[in-house]
Amino acid sequence: MYFTDAGIEELDDRRGDERVSMTWLAERLRDFVDLNPEFETAVDRLASWLARLDADSEPDDDDSAGEE
User: What is the pTM of this model?
Assistant: First the structure.
């Protein structure tokens, strides 16, 4: 485990059984950035990564348009 995983481990230990919506998570990320603007870039990258996580495994509808 990396030192930076300590917060992830704490999150899992304290709240790992909870279910939250993406809206709730987005609001918490906004709150965090408001309180810690120096982390805006990292939070934005994390949010983009989470948003696109399954995008690589889904077929792109635009790619098949016009192919028959």
Answer: 0.70
Q: How far is CA 47 from CA 24, 29, 53, 68, in A?
A: 13, 8, 10, 37
Tokens read off for 54: 């399954």
Please calculate the CA angle 27-30-32 and round it to the nearest 5 degrees: 110
- The model's confidence at residue 55, banded by pLDDT at 50, 70 and 90, is confident
d(CA 7, CA 34) in angstroms, rounded, equals 19
> How far apart are alpha carbons 55 and 61 in whole angstroms?
12
Tell me which residue of 17, 20, 15, 44 sits closest to 32, measured CA to CA. 44
Q: What is the pLDDT of residue 47?
A: 97
